[in-house]
Amino acid sequence: MAISKIKIYYPNGILGEYSLVHDEEKNIFNKSYYLSGNMEYESIRLKNNTQRIYFYNNNEKNNLSRGFYINGSLYKKELQFACDGSLTMDISYKNTRKDGRVFGYHENGILSYSINYKDGYEDGMFYTYYTNGALAKKSFFRNGIHYNEEIYR
User: Fold this and answer.
1) What share of the chain in percent tops pLDDT 90?
2) Which SS3 state, helix, strand or coil, does residue 4 take?
3) Beta-strand runs (E) in the chain
């Protein structure tokens, strides 16, 4: 059971990244740091190609991202969660590009926005919602270009 340790430093000597790689199982544990020395994120990638990424703000965990990877690229679905476990984003992928509906959620769990992607570009209707669930804005995109918008009050 061989484990490789990798450390990468900033030019000033502060640790920038630290990784542990289990060579046989292909599991990877990684921590990344800002130049200030504060934690940026930590990630765990398992041999079944799932990955969890914990993001930090002032050295405190503030959200979690989970996804499925093939050859190091995000594939199919990414879910992002707040520290309390509530879902904040649901993103669909095809061939490592956003493709399909993407949903964002307010802290109260109510839908914040919904937009369609095709081959990595916004394509179709984009809806945003107030925290009470009422429609706030409706926009239209085609191949990443914003064409029109209606605002609701």
Assistant:
1) 27
2) strand
3) 3-9, 15-22, 27-33, 39-45, 50-57, 60-70, 73-82, 87-94, 97-105, 111-118, 121-129, 135-142, 145-151
> What is the pTM assigned to this prediction?
0.61
Listed in sequence order, the residues at least 6 apart from 37 whose beta carbon sits closer than 8 Å to its beta carbon are 14, 15
Number of C-beta neighbours around residue 59 at 10 A: 12
Q: Residue 68 contacts by C-beta under 8 Å, 6 or more apart in sequence? A: 49, 50, 51, 74, 75, 76, 77
Closest CA to 106 of 89, 126, 84: 89
Asked if the model's pLDDT at residue 46 lies above 80, the reply is no
Three-state DSSP at 91 gives strand
Give the C-alpha distances (Å, rounded to integers) separating 42 from 60, 120, 147: 11, 26, 39
| Beta bridge partner(s), residue 27 | 22
